[in-house]
């Protein structure tokens, strides 16, 4: 079990912060723990928000206090689940790498002394993990990006990035769930909808899920619009 402490986070949330020296194992532990906490369905619990080293829990202050919510969650934090892993969902995501939508593919290939075809092949050969969600609703930060493709975010962000754009920022791959300004290096686009408020579960991905990409043509992409 990873050492942790619990503190208030504003007036309506608590924050569980872990100490560690094994970031990959901690992230798996956080995802498992967050899923279990979410399944409690405590009437005062509004949301469970995992991150790289923390889990935030938002609660209804009209139904419980910080001290009460702390007592609720502690038993679930102290269970010994080292040998237990909650099976994540796996998603296969179509992506179009055509230069019409892969706005930074050529520049990235020059930066890394690769051909565009090599960049595409490397990007597809990895199984990625959803580390956390943000900065847009449903936007996944995906770990597992090959070091050959790791690229700093653009020094001047674009004022407009299309919904479904697949980008690289530092050592992460991400997918824009909504049209937005952004500074990630865009190497493709997916027609898959990541965020839909009309669904019972509005987010396609959950932290801990895994995904892989497979290529589609520009015609296939445009046929879905």
From TrEMBL:
<keyword id="KW-0067">ATP-binding</keyword>
<feature type="domain" description="Carboxyltransferase">
    <location>
        <begin position="4"/>
        <end position="205"/>
    </location>
</feature>
<dbReference type="GO" id="GO:0017168">
    <property type="term" value="F:5-oxoprolinase (ATP-hydrolyzing) activity"/>
</dbReference>
<keyword id="KW-0378">Hydrolase</keyword>
<dbReference type="InterPro" id="IPR029000">
    <property type="entry name" value="Cyclophilin-like_dom_sf"/>
</dbReference>
<dbReference type="InterPro" id="IPR003833">
    <property type="entry name" value="CT_C_D"/>
</dbReference>
<keyword id="KW-0547">Nucleotide-binding</keyword>
<protein>
    <submittedName>
        <fullName>5-oxoprolinase subunit PxpB</fullName>
        <ecNumber>3.5.2.9</ecNumber>
    </submittedName>
</protein>
<dbReference type="Pfam" id="PF02682">
    <property type="entry name" value="CT_C_D"/>
</dbReference>
<dbReference type="InterPro" id="IPR010016">
    <property type="entry name" value="PxpB"/>
</dbReference>
């Amino acid at each position: 079990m990873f050492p942790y402490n619990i503190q208030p986070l504003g007036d309506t949330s608590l924050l569980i912060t872990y100490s560690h020296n094994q970031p990959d194992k901690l992230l798996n532990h956080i995802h498992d723990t967050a899923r279990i906490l979410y399944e409690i369905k405590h009437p005062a619990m509004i949301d469970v928000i995992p991150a790289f080293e923390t889990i935030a829990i938002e609660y209804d202050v009209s139904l419980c206090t910080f001290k009460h919510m702390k007592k609720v969650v502690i038993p679930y934090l102290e269970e010994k689940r080292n040998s237990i892993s909650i099976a994540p969902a796996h998603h296969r995501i179509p992506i179009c790498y055509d230069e019409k939508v892969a706005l930074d593919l050529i520049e990235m290939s020059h930066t890394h002394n690769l051909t565009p075809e090599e960049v595409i092949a490397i990007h597809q050969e990895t199984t990625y993990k959803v580390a956390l969600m943000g900065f847009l609703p449903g936007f996944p930060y995906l770990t597992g990006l090959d070091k050959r493709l790791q690229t700093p975010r653009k020094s001047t962000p674009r004022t407009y990035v299309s919904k479904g754009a697949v980008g690289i920022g530092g050592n992460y791959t991400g997918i824009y769930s909504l049209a937005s300004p952004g500074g990630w290096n865009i190497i493709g686009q997916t027609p898959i909808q990541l965020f839909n408020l009309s669904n019972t579960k509005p987010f396609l991905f959950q932290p801990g899920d895994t995904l892989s990409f497979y290529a589609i043509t520009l015609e296939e992409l445009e046929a879905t619009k």
